Amino acid sequence: MSSINPVVQVAQQMLLGGAVKQNHALEHATIVLLSRKLPEVRFSGISFAAGFFVFGDVPTEAILPAAQEALQLLRTTEPELAVHERCGTNLAVAGLLTGLSSMAVAKLRRPYSTPNNVILASTAALVLARPLGLVVQRYVTTQTPNASMRILDVKPMTVMGSPAHFVSTDNPDAAGLFA
Questions:
Q1: Residue 175: pLDDT above 80?
Q2: Per UniProt, what is one Pfam family of this protein (predicted)?
């Protein structure tokens, strides 16, 4: 049973608390390891304070060893596994930068607020978003799992018709509201 209460889980999700960020890092690393072992399977995931989902048609018995190895690697020799090129954080950063740059240019006085300049600003924002998204992952949306984090179990399920597994974690040191 997880040491984090449901109210704190919701607050952590909204505030991007330590438990969510550490599970996010573990999710990425687990998916990287699974992708290396099963390159024909397309994986995705989503993290919560109490664990994370791995979406992909993969045997349940492959998930736990990959997650345990990922946890060990994150803590020791490969903390960079926490950052993933296809993370939703990158999409969020790209959307935010593109929207803000487009709005900023559109608000400029003539002759600067032309459609061509809006497109140019949007394109520049998209180019900048890729490296910035990786930096945001590293420093904002993921965190190296602490020593108290442990993997409890893996439950297979179907989510909206797709095969998935929920990896439950417990992390007493990150179970508080501001941990």
A1: no
A2: DUF6391
Q: Which residue has the tokens 């990287």?
A: 32
- Do residue 14 and residue 64 come from a single domain? yes
Alpha-carbon distances of 15 from 37, 89, 96, 100, 140, rounded to whole Å: 34, 15, 18, 22, 11
Range of the domain at 112: 88-139
**CATH number for the domain that contains residue 33:** 3.30.980.10
Where residue 7 falls among pLDDT bands split at 50, 70, 90?
confident
Model pLDDT, residue 36: 97
Provide the domain count of the chain.
2
Q: Is 22 in the same domain as 60?
A: yes
Question: Does residue 128 sit within a domain?
Answer: yes
Within-domain flag for 1 = no
pLDDT digit string (tens) for 38-62? 999 999 999 999 999 999 999 999 9
Specify the pTM: 0.91
HSE at residue 129, side-chain half, CA atoms within 13 A, is 22
Q: Contact at 8 Å (CB) between 19 and 179?
A: yes
Of 13, 2, 19, 50, whose CA–CA distance to 145 is shortest?
19
Rounded Cα gap, residues 104 and 88, in angstroms: 24
* Token digits of residue 56: 């992909």
